[in-house]
Amino acid sequence: MGDRPCLSVTDDPDHTWRRIESELRQRVPPDMYEIWLAPLRLVEIAGDQVVVEAPRELRAWVAERFARVLQASAVAVLGPSAVVRVRGGDEGPRPRRRRGDRAGNADATAPDDELAATETGLNPKYTFEQFVMGDANRFAHAAALAVAELPGQAYNPLFIYGPPGVGKTHLLHSIGNYVRATSEGLSVRYTTVETFTNEFIAAITKGSIDRFKGRLRRSDVLLIDDVQFLASKVKTEEEFFHTFNALYESGSQLVLTCDRLPRDLEALEDRLRERFEAGLVTAIAPPDLATRLTVLRKRVQHDAIELEDEAVLTLIAERVPTNVRALEGALIRVVAYASLTGRTVSAPLAREVLGDLYPPRAPAPGGSRDARQTIDRILRLSADTFGFTVDEILSHDRRPALASARQVAMYLAREHTGETLPAIGRRFGGRNHTTVMHACRRTADRLAQDPEFFESVRRLTDDLRRPEDDRRG
User: Fold this and answer.
1) What is the pLDDT of residues 18-27, one digit of tens each?
2) Distance in angstroms (rounded) separating the CA atoms of residues 263 and 455
3) 365-384, pLDDT tens digit by residue?
4) N or C: which end of the chain has fewer CB within 10 A?
């Protein structure tokens, strides 16, 4: 305990909190800060623990969605061992502890799950039960669950990649929480590359590198977020490599997340990229409309939000197609605006609040003609990808490989155009809409089970989204 960072004698808690607030203002957009973080009130700072209070109705959202930025801001002011706890305004008054009081007393009153989160880095609210599955994340979910059930035996390492906000971190915490609940005696630790780097530098500065190594290398399950940030950090990368090797060789489970494939981490050494690819590499894509609606319904149920009708959820899901984090942020923005203005949570209100941030995606001029051109492009790209001609895909030839290519093209037409199932069927050689439905189901099932097939369709989707004159090769 003697080498834990603490406040200097010249810093009182209020001054320290103002410094942390200054860090927060630099890390989040001004409107987001004013709505969610400005209402926070400092309760106490004891050693390296910062306790802040949020309004009761905001507490769960702030604790879940701003935990990382609060942590990073506290670390910037207090050092790498800083811990932030957000409590609700209805937890009852507690006296602010004076400087010099031991943080251990605060720990004695903290709930068990908060203690566990402090020790392991896990958020107890992120579980498999709370994870919303869809076609875009089904395979990654199955792989994560397999790892949680058989740490070090199923897939090691497990490497999950995808764009920001699609659920990678949620799966990491779900694995950790599942292992803690079902595998007594196994130690679990969650960390980010940013935290790993900060603690590594602090250990070098303090001469406690052996302690740093021992803490991580005793983990039975190590969950590491955002490995893309290892790039260009030579000393950190070297230490990370040795930590990875030590854990792997001892049979410990490693799970990593990244925003790209290992082979695309060009700034990393080949030996580390090869380690990442040695196990199972699986992707999470942005959620489809049905999944986005399910996410919103679950959030509404969890937070007991009263809606005028479900049209508001449909509007939000249509306006925010990219990721779950932005989706839930849009919902909370609408709810907060309704609360502040005394209005009901309705579709007109959502349209008003989200108008500037998420304008409606207007159909291209020409309507169905442009949808037809998009389907034509899907047909051309699918034919090129799978080695057939467009005429073959439109034919009634039932060769398995050709049928699979045809089903993928139908699936993409359903996902990337506004055309109805009957219209897609007519464009694909006069087929029935039930044929299109069957093709979409078969493709979705295979995407969830076959990583190689998933990767082929992902590349095809990337080509479809790219302007035609930008396509390479």
Assistant:
1) 899 988 888 8
2) 13
3) 444 444 445 888 899 999 99
4) C
